[in-house]
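Hi X.,

You mentioned you wanted examples for the new student's onboarding notes, showing what a folding record looks like when two proteins sit in one file. Here is a clean example. The first protein comes first, with its sequence line followed by its structure tokens.
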Amino acid sequence: MAYRREAILSATAAAVASVGGCVQEPADSTPGKRSTEEIQTTFETGVDTAIETADDPIVSFKAGEIVVIGTYAIGNYCYNPTLAEPAYDEAADRLEIRVTREHVGSTECEDINQEISYRAVVTFDGQPPETVHVIENDGGETTRSRPH
């Protein structure tokens, strides 16, 4: 079905181009597509979430942004909490957010398991993606679709 839609759109684009500029082609000729551009990402740790490490992260959609809160384990004090660059798949209209850890370079670390609470906010120009998938280091994972 997707191939057929692409073929129809290609034929339409060719027909529009053949009139030699007499008709202005729309900026986005793909039906149902919209502009989604990530413009800012913030990551805070040590926030009050009331979420346990065993719980999956919580995703909420607000006007122009996606908010994720959760708690995850990062291991001993040789690691810092890190938010990987969010990855947006335009074709699937899906955002992946990965909360992970980064080694600080020390070789002498206390053998204690750190649990980190966090809030990640991804702000968009335009409507947020349809689906958000969140993965925590050695922890929870969730997928949530934008309410309509």
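Then the second protein repeats the pattern, sequence line and then tokens:
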Amino acid sequence: MYDIETILSQVNTSRTSTLDANNLLSSLMSYSAAEIREAYKDVLTSGEANYLSRQVYEAQKKIKKPKREF
């Protein structure tokens, strides 16, 4: 099982500036799964990159979820 905090920490170490987990996840929302794998192939395994891309996708779904009006 993968841990998103560990994966984001690994990604953060490869960046020129560090971001907190929420901002880092947000910054990856414009990346496709292939772009995430390519951008971080030196620090993440393919499984970790795939897991990260799924987490990014799930975060996007939560943001775009329409609010129900009563």
